[in-house]
Amino acid sequence: MTIATPRIRRTPPVPDLADIQGGILRAYGNDYSRTTYLFVNVDETRAGLRWLGRLVDDVTSARPWTAGKPATTLNVALTYDGLRALGLSAELLATFSDEFRAGMAARAAQLGDVGTSAPEYWDTPARAHVILIVNALSEDDLTGRLADLRADLGRYEGLSLMHEEHASLLPGVREHFGFADGFAQPAVEGVTDEKAPGGGVRDKDGWRGLALGEFVLGYPDESGRDSDGQDLPSAPAGPLGRNSTYGVWRKLEQDVALFRETLRTSAAAFPGGDEEKLAAKIVGRWRNGTPIVLSPDGPAADFRGNDPGANDFLYHDVDADGRRCPLGAHIRRSNPRDSIGFGELLSFRHRMLRRGVPYGPPLPPEATGPDGQQRGLIFVCYVASISRQFESVQVQWLEDGNVFGLGHDKDFLIRGPADGSGKMTVPGEPPFFLGPQPTFVTTRGGQYLFVPGITGLGAVAAGTAG
Amino acid sequence: MRARRAQASPVTVLTPIVPGERDALESYLTGLSDAPGGSPLARVPGTHFARWVILPDLVTDPKQPAPDPLGSPHLLFTSNVDGSADDYLAAVADTLTAEAPEIWGRCVGCPRPATGAGLARYLRHNAIGTGLFFAAYPRATVQAVTAALDVHDRLVRLLVDTQPAGPAAIRAAFLKEFRP
Amino acid sequence: MTVSEPGTAVGTATGTGAGNIDGQAIAITVFSTVKWWGKHWLPLLFTTLRLIPPLTRDLRKLSFIHFARWTLIRELPANGDTAPRTRLRYPHLFFESNFNDGWEEYIDAFSYVLTRGMSLFWASSYGFPGALPTGPFKDYIHRNELEAAHYYSAYPEATATMVRKALALAPAVADFAERAVRLSPAEFEGAWSAFLTDAQDLL
Ligand code: HEM
Fold first, then answer.
1. Which residue in A231, A342, A402 is closest to C162 by CB distance?
2. Lowest mean pLDDT among A222-231, A377-386, A423-432, B111-120
3. CA distances, C109 to each of B77, C24, C57, C121 (Å)
4. From CA A307, how far away is CA A166, in angstroms rounded?
């Protein structure tokens, strides 16, 4: 089943790359091995505006680089409290989405951030105003840029640097459990059309990228795509409603020792004692990224996640019952493609551009238990609607399994219910049951963000945003 | 959509609220979910899903030529029930002896006391037929549903607990739990 | 809008006012005013759908609805002199559903999957913007929706899919239990494995 083909042939809108911040529509790439998030609070509006005003010119846009890669990039994201602290009018503030205004901590119960994941245990500030995102090619580049930014901040009274979160890529662009991460991304029409097969949506003419407005505000989304720009998705009023986006920032601590231990003990009862296969069943990919739905018996040695066509696969026709890739596997839950039935109709409005980076040192392979170090994933994604795209995936697909016919089973890769009763079914002959479900991932911080376009950011700094 | 042969049936009752009683009725109804024993509807046998809704008035769409006011707020009661609507309404009247006077007792034309056969007659009089009824599992009673859910939960727990054990232990555990 | 701000819910039942939620179950209650021809059209539609079950196959397949109903209200029962009125100027369409998962996801599914169906049901209603695009359709439903003062589910933690699976599983378990009593431990192993293989979709 495909979505309706538009009656009018239209050319996709052209994104204003010079105004959209960088790192959203396209990742900066794996050469940028370091990412730091600086949490800045604005205690005094005027100081905040002056500081931002000077920063605006340094913000990295999405315009392609012609003179090679810069050593560092800088991006600016704001929370709702931040927008308030910067003096936006009540009328303008009211035009931001409900969930953004509430903030992530206020949505904790819904998002499953309860128990040890509850905001009272977070180790990053629950209230923040501005988050600066700095990417760097090397440690030295990072050190230099951060020193400049700190010095700059120090020049203003009424601004405080609340927190620094340092993240960096692990060897082979793996996340801490050992899987290649970050390459399966939605295709955006007019931007990353080459990813359309498997990353976009099908209409009668075949695959196409998702409407730009699914990820950047001020452009038609999939609902208004055929209205010729008449029907734009809801966005903040004025200059903030164009070339901006919403962001989700989550610090997710990973218990790697527990993950390995669980694999080892569970595999003892799994056919063939095959730990690697069991791991692949939990994620839906082998460690190098090969989708198990395509390659059920082992990874393809030459699999490259970024190759064109690497993510061109569906589930329904080849694997409706999950004998290859379990219905509860992480990638089948977080992007079910055509798995829910009705083609992609029930999943294509729930895509996100993920820009996460791991933090903390890897747990050495030979470690036999926890080493007392903290590590995990700074999960970041950009979406036009936090509730429809991020929250819906988190709440309906990861924290619950009903949509997939899995009852209240939660994503096994992330965390089990508080009472320790969770399980995952690995379909087979006979099926295998993983359980009880431990908690591998604990939320340690989170923010809902707004990432203005560069013009919009300038307007905030000039006090003219409204 | 097998409204005729199905076991489950829809109940819809729409009654005018006595002028001035709307707020008291609404706060009584919203308070019910905090009642110590839970919802009183749990005591009415055969209730799958039910609701009380205050209908302040009918919708007036901006495109509709003239408004169509009800004249007073109404109380909508709907339920999805086992068996016939008439039998169900009789059960409501017999069971909700404490609650019904607080609810339909505030509606126009309701007999006093708002209980028993009189109430059942009143509810039936104000019942509205259904155009199209959809039931995902039309032949399963509330009892059958809750029993089946319980079997499911017990079996899943058993599977997770016993998987590492040998067949003899699994058999023993299974028979202990589900012996006919 | 007569539904309170969303955001109070815990679990998958999201996107609607607290009064519309019991556990995983969400109530939706929607009225709309119907144009004159709807009083002929809707009864015809209801009858057709009742007589030809395949027409509602997608509704069934969507599988997150426990019970739903559409009713055309053309007059109100008389309740004596003090009752306000019995005759209505227009017919009114009353829709209720008892479903699970989020409100937004539910209406999206209606728009995208049951596009034609939704148009048939609401075609004769004043102000109906069409089932697609989803934005205006959601706004329309929101505008015409009422929040329940009290909502009850007999099995609040179970979704429609869970109920249907449990109803299929329970007799299979009973049946296997009958057989298991007579099986030797050696025979049991193979039979158990076959039972689980057959029943895995229901777990
Ligand atoms: C520490 C927690 C997490 C870990 C270790 C993790 C790991 C992974 C891995 C290894 C992949 C496959 C590689 C790839 O597709 O790029 C993946 C894919 C994905 N993950 Fe996660 N993930 C985590 C949390 C989350 C959360 C919280 C969400 C969303 C709310 C999410 C959404 C996704 C999505 C959308 C995909 C792409 C699936 C596809 O398009 O096929 N992940 N994740």
1. A402
2. A222-231
3. 27, 18, 14, 15
4. 29
Cβ of residue A184 lying under 6 Å from some atom of ligand 1: yes
CA-to-CA distance for C147 and C103, rounded, in angstroms?
A: 13
Minimal Cα distance from B152: which residue of C? C166
Element (DSSP H or E) covering residue A346: none
Of the partner residues B152, B156, B164, the one whose CB lies closest to the CB of residue A423: B156
Cα–Cα distances (Å) from A71 to A59, A67, B49, in that order, read 13, 12, 61
ipTM associated with this complex: 0.94
Does the pLDDT at position A101 exceed 70? yes
Residue A61 CB neighbour total at 10 angstroms: 18
Instruction: Give the confidence band of B1 by pLDDT, cuts at 50, 70, 90.
Output: very low
Measured from the CB, is residue A360 less than 6 Å from ligand 1?
no
Residue among C113, C147, C143, C112 at smallest CA distance from C128? C143
pLDDT at A433 exceeding the cut of 50: yes
- Confidence band of B73 (pLDDT split at 50, 70, 90): very high
Dump pLDDT digits (tens) for A185-225. 999 999 999 999 999 999 888 999 999 999 999 999 998 88
Please indicate whether, in this complex, the C-beta atoms of A423 and B160 are within 8 angstroms of each other.
yes
pLDDT of residue B6: 46
Q: Is there an atom of ligand 1 within 6 Å of A331 CB?
A: yes
Q: Which CATH architecture has domain C18-144?
A: 2-Layer Sandwich (3.30)
Report domain extents, chain B.
8-125, 142-178
Percentage of chain C modeled with pLDDT above 90: 61
What is the distance in A from the centroid of ligand 1 to the CA of A132? Answer: 24
Four-CA torsion A136, A140, A144, A149, nearest 10 degrees: 40
Angle between helices C103-113 and C134-143 (to 10 degrees): 130
Residue B168 to residue B172: CA distance in whole angstroms: 6
Provide the CATH topology of domain B8-125. Alpha-Beta Plaits (3.30.70)
Shortest Cα distance, chain B CAs vs residue A411, angstroms: 16
The pLDDT tens digits of the residues spanning C132-186 come to: 888 888 889 999 999 999 999 999 999 999 999 999 999 999 999 999 999 998 8
Phi, psi of C76 (to 5 degrees): -110, 145
A287 with A174: CB under 8 angstroms? yes
Name beta bridge partners: B52.
Answer: B77, C150
pLDDT in tens, A390-408: 999 999 999 999 999 999 9
Using the structure block, give the residue that is written with the tokens 């869970």: C162
Residues 6+ positions from A97 with CB-CB distance below 8 Å: A234, A246, A385, A386, A387
For residue A381, the surrounding DSSP H or E stretch is: strand A376-383
Arithmetic mean of pLDDT, B6-21: 92
Q: Is the CB of A183 under 6 A from ligand 1?
A: yes
Instruction: Assess contact for A380 and A37: CB atoms under 8 A.
Output: no
Query: Strand B8-16 vs strand A432-434: parallel, antiparallel, or unpaired?
Result: unpaired
CA of A437 to the centre of ligand 1 (A): 18
Q: What is the CA radius of gyration of chain A?
A: 22
CB contact under 8 A, C154 and B49: yes
CA B73/CA B69 separation, integer angstroms = 10
Asked whether residue A331 carries a pLDDT value surpassing 50, the answer given is yes
* Distance in angstroms (rounded) separating the CA atoms of residues C63 and C163: 10
**Beta strand C87-100 with C150-153: parallel, antiparallel or unpaired?**
unpaired
**Residue A342 is nearest to which of C7, C14, C113, comparing CB atoms?**
C113
Task: Note whether B152 contacts C165, CB cutoff 8 Å.
Answer: yes
C196 touches chain A (CB under 8 A): yes
| Chain A residues close to B157, C-beta within 8 Å | 421
